[in-house]
Amino acid sequence: RLGRIINDLLDISKIEAGHIDLHRQPVDLGQLVRKVVAAFEVKTRSGQVKLIAAVPEQPLLVYGDTDRIVQILVNLAGNSLKFTTEGHIKISIALQKNVVECQVQDTGIGIAPENLPKLFGRFQQFGRIVSGGEKGTGLGLAITRQLVELHQGSIRAESQVGKGTTFIFTLPRFSAEAVFQVHLHEAIQKTKSAETKFTFLHAPSCAAEDSVLRRLELAFSPSTDWKLESVIASPVNGVAVFLLDCNREAGLRAQTRLADLLGAPQGSVRAVTFPDDAAEEADFYKQLEMAR
């Protein structure tokens, strides 16, 4: 228990200090749900609570960090298990437009309406039975909320006293559009926080194959002019490169370098510097539309 308390304190400190980097990739959320349910079945085998994974047979991909998504699921399932003595805990997922929605629903003691707004706060505990169950740190749901928001998702809870609680969170569905949106949003947030600039390069004529993306990552990593954030497939066509701490002058040098690496005409690669050339996310999408 002491180890869990220390890990929770370290996690919340790292998240609030902005020191957690997500290692994003396409993740089959259904497969993760099955694994988490299987792990918790050991705890519920001798009890009166049944764990259910209501997920589609076909892969349903989200764009996120596998370990952190597992942590989200474990935190929510573990929370439900603390307050559910009989009935079931069901984890279900479904596609909702550009996001995948996950619900963790239990038949536990529920949460009073006045406590719902405080549910995701730090060191909050509601309804714990003093004589039974394991006392937590009161940080699990706060960490869960922040991990979901780091994935650019959202989380909420619905509950009725005596009938149970449902936690509902969303994660970005894996697609070229979602990947671009995630990296653009993060580049803007990091740049605003550091009070610097970043440059976005777009090469529409380049094939966004894995080998090409990896080659460009290696080529752009060692530099004193910028910090490579990511090299990804463009949502329209070609490749997109995000360079942090990169002003317009350095961005123009990067533009020339990318064109040389691809063997493309100089005018075919577009360089857009934030906030000089584009101050809002919508401005970057306009630049992409021009490349269609």
Give, in order, the helices and strands: HEHEEHEEHEEHEHEEHEH
In round numbers, the mean pLDDT is 88
Q: Let me know the number of strands.
A: 11
Q: Return Rg in Å.
A: 22 Å
Protein architecture, described:
With 292 residues, the protein is α+β, with helices and mostly antiparallel strands. Helices cover 39% and strands 26% of the residues. The protein has helices at 2-16, 29-44, 66-82, 140-150, 176-194, 210-220, 248-262, 281-290, and strands at residues 24-28, 48-54, 61-65, 86-96, 99-106, 155-160, 164-172, 198-203, 227-233, 239-244, 270-274. The strands form 3 sheets. The chain has a 5-stranded mixed sheet. A hairpin with a 2-residue loop joins β4 and β5. α1 (2-16) runs parallel beside α4 (140-150) and α2 (29-44) packs parallel to α3. The radius of gyration is 22 Å and the shape is elongated.
Short description:
This protein has 292 residues and is of the alpha+beta class. It is built from eight helices and eleven strands.
Write the layout of secondary structure elements.
Elements: H1 2-16, E1 24-28, H2 29-44, E2 48-54, E3 61-65, H3 66-82, E4 86-96, E5 99-106, H4 140-150, E6 155-160, E7 164-172, H5 176-194, E8 198-203, H6 210-220, E9 227-233, E10 239-244, H7 248-262, E11 270-274, H8 281-290
Parallel strand pairs: 2-4
Antiparallel strand pairs: 1-3, 4-5, 5-7, 6-7, 8-10, 8-11, 9-10
Helix pairs in contact: 1-4, 2-3, 3-4
